[in-house]
Amino acid sequence: MFFIILAHSGYVPALIDRFYNSFFLSGFFMLSGYLFHNPEKPFSLTIKLKKIIDTLVIPYLLYWIISFSIDSMLKGDFLFMKELLIHILKGDKLWFMSVLIVSEIFLAIVLSSKYVHLSLLLFSVASLILWHFFKDYDLIWFLQVSFIANVFLVMGYFFRLYNRLFLDIVHRNVYFGPIALLWLICFGIHNYYGFKITFNGNSFGNIFYFIVYALTGSLLVYKVSYKISDITVARIFFVFIGINSLLFYFFQNQILRILKKIFFSFTMEKNYFLPFLIAFLVIAILYYPIKLVNRYFPILTGKSKLFTKW
To answer: What is the pTM of this model?
Structure first.
C-alpha cells in the first residue's frame, strides 16, 4: 500500500519505479490469495461470497456512490443516477478494487470444487490463456486484468496450502541468495531494456518473465518484512497502513491532488527524495480521518460484517 501511494505521487524517478513495479501489486494479490481461506477449515462458497460482499463490494460501492454524487453535485449535475448506474455496471472506477473483487469471486468458486489442487492449476492455465486473447480489450470490471491477478491469487493460496514450505523458504537464508540473484537478474533486464510494467495497463513484457520477476520480488519483500517487524516503530507504521489499506486506497488521491499542486509550484523535476516525502505526508494527513472512519463509519472499512450477520 505504501508503494501504491508512492507510485501515485507522480514524482518517482524511473529507477525507483522499476525497482518496485514488479511486486507492489502482484505481491498484494499474492497476499490476498494467502489470506483468502485457511485450508485447515472447511470451505463454504456461500459464507465466502458473503464475506467478499462485506469486505470489498459494500465499501467499494459506498465509496463510489458518495464520491460520484458529491463530484456530480459540485458540477451542478443533479440527474446523475443513470450515469452512476452505468458506471457501476461497467465496474470502471478504481480498477484495483474491481479486479480484486472479480478475482476473489473466481477463486471462491474454484475452491468450492471437489478437486481443489487440480481446479486451481486448471484455473491458472485458463486465466493465462484468456489473458493472452483478451489483454488488448477493455472488458467490464477490468476482466482482462483480473486474468493475471488470478494467477497471483492462486500462487498465494498455494503458499498457504504448503505453509510450512513457504515459511521455510522465507526464513532460511540458504534460499535467500538464489531468490535475490534471480530477482536481480530480472531487475537488470528490466532496467536495461527500460520497458514499462503497468498492471492496470495490462503491460508486463514477456508474461513468464514477469511472473518469475514478481514472485521473487514478493518473496524478498516478505523476507524483509520479517526483519522490519523487529523494529517497533516500523512495525506500528506498516501495520497501521496494512489494516487500513482499503481506506488509504480510497482517500489517497484527494490528498495527492492537493500535495502535487503545492509541490508543482516549486519543482516539476523527479527526484529520489520528493516521492517519499509526499507518501509520508499522505499517510500523516490521513491518520486521524482514517481513525474517525474506523470509529464512526466502519462499514466503509470492510470490517463491519453487516451482510454476513444479516
So the answer is: 0.91
